[in-house]
Design goal:
The chain has 294 residues and is of the alpha+beta class. The chain contains eight helices and eight strands. The protein has helices at 3-21, 97-104, 108-128, 132-136, 139-156, 174-246, 248-263, 284-288, and strands at 23-26, 30-36, 39-42, 48-51, 57-63, 67-77, 83-94, 160-171. The strands form three sheets. Strands 3-2-5 form a three-stranded antiparallel sheet, with helices on one face. A three-stranded antiparallel sheet has the order 6-7-8, with helices on one face. A two-stranded antiparallel ribbon has the order 1-4. A hairpin with a 5-residue loop joins strand 6 and strand 7 (83-94). The longest helix is centred in the last third of the chain and has 73 residues, at 174-246. The protein starts with a helix and ends in a 6-residue tail after the last helix. The model is unreliable at 290-294 (pLDDT under 50).
C-alpha cells in the first residue's frame, strides 16, 4: 500500500470518527445535557438523533425512570429516649437534569448519598417528636407524609423529584416492644368494652320499647275482646229473653235439660230431695205447676 493510500485511509477514519462524535441519540429512558468547557450548552433534548460539536462538547446521560433508594437507620431516638431501628425506601426521579448535573456532576452515587442524608435527618427529627406508641401507631402515616414534603423541598435543589417515602419496618427492643403492645392491647380492650356497653344499652332500650309496645297491643286487644264479648253476651241475653217470651214452659224445660247435661256426669252421685225444683220434670206433681216456676 502506497503512502497516498495510507494517508487517504487515515483521513477517512478521522472523518468517520469526527462524524460519529458529532452525533448522539437520545432514548425515551434518558435525560441528556451537553457540556462545553464545563458549561452546559444544551439540555432540552427530545428522543431522537441530535448533533453537537465534536471533541469540544460532551454528552452526559441520566436515567429518567423512577428509581428506588432503600436505607436503614440503626438507632432512632423517640421523645422518650427509646431506641428504634427503621428500614425505609424512597421513590425518586430526575426532574431537572441541569440542576442535577450542577449539584452532583452527574454522579448517581453522590445523588443517592445526598438524598439519603436528607431522608434520614428528617426521619430522625420526626421520630424525636413522638413516643414509641405514636410511632408504631396512627402517627406512622403522618411521619412519612411530613418527611416526604420536607425531603422534596431539599431534593428540588438537586433537580430531583421525590415521588414517595415509606417505612418498611420498625424494630423495637423486646422489653419495650412487649410494653407497647400490651398497652395497645389494653386500649383496644377498653374500646371493645365501651362498644359492648353501648350495644347492651341500645339492646335494653330496644327491648324496653318492644315490651311497651307489646303491653299496649295486648291492652288494646283485651279491650276489644271484652267489648266483643260484652256485645255477644248482650245478644245472647236478648235471644234468651225473646225465647222465654215466646214459650216460657218450653224455655224452662230446655234450660233444665242444659243444667242436667252440664251438672251430672256418668259417675256422679247426687243426694237430693225428690220434691226439689231441680227434678221437677221427673215429678209429675211438680211438673204440673212448672208453668209458674222460673
Amino acid at each position: 500500500m502506497s503512502g497516498k493510500q495510507i494517508f487517504a485511509l487515515i483521513v477517512v477514519i478521522i472523518a468517520a470518527y469526527v462524524a460519529y462524535d458529532s452525533m448522539f441519540v437520545v432514548t425515551p429512558r434518558e435525560r441528556v445535557v451537553v457540556v462545553q468547557m464545563g458549561e452546559i450548552v444544551g439540555s432540552q433534548y427530545q428522543p431522537g438523533l441530535h448533533f453537537k460539536i465534536p471533541f469540544v462538547q460532551k454528552v452526559h446521560r441520566f436515567d429518567r425512570r423512577v428509581m428506588t433508594l432503600t436505607g436503614e437507620i440503626d438507632r432512632v431516638l423517640t421523645s422518650e429516649n427509646k431506641n428504634l431501628s427503621v428500614d425505609y425506601y424512597v421513590k425518586w426521579q430526575i426532574a431537572d437534569p441541569v440542576k442535577y448535573y450542577l449539584s452532583t456532576h452527574g454522579n448517581a452515587d453522590r445523588a443517592r448519598t445526598l438524598l439519603t442524608e436528607s431522608v434520614q435527618n428528617d426521619l430522625l427529627a420526626e421520630f424525636s417528636k413522638r413516643t414509641i406508641r405514636q410511632a408504631v401507631g396512627d402517627d406512622r402515616n403522618e411521619i412519612v407524609a411530613a418527611v416526604q414534603v420536607q425531603v422534596n423541598e431539599a431534593a428540588k435543589q438537586l433537580g430531583i423529584d421525590v415521588k414517595d417515602v415509606r417505612i418498611m419496618k420498625l424494630d423495637l427492643p423486646s422489653k419495650v416492644s412487649d410494653t407497647v403492645y400490651e398497652r395497645m392491647r389494653s386500649e383496644r380492650q377498653e374500646v371493645i368494652r365501651t362498644l359492648r356497653a353501648q350495644g347492651d344499652a341500645a339492646a335494653k332500650e330496644i327491648r324496653s320499647d318492644a315490651e311497651r309496645e307489646r303491653t299496649v297491643v295486648l291492652a288494646k286487644a283485651y279491650k276489644e275482646a271484652e267489648m266483643i264479648r260484652g256485645q255477644g253476651d248482650a245478644k245472647a241475653a236478648e235471644v234468651y229473653a225473646n225465647a222465654y217470651k215466646k214459650d216460657p214452659k218450653f224455655y224452662s224445660f230446655y234450660r233444665s235439660l242444659q243444667l242436667y247435661r252440664q251438672s251430672i256426669g256418668d259417675n256422679d252421685v247426687l243426694l237430693l230431695k225428690p220434691d226439689g225444683q231441680l227434678f221437677k220434670y221427673f215429678n209429675p206433681g211438680l211438673a204440673a205447676g212448672a208453668g209458674s216456676t222460673k
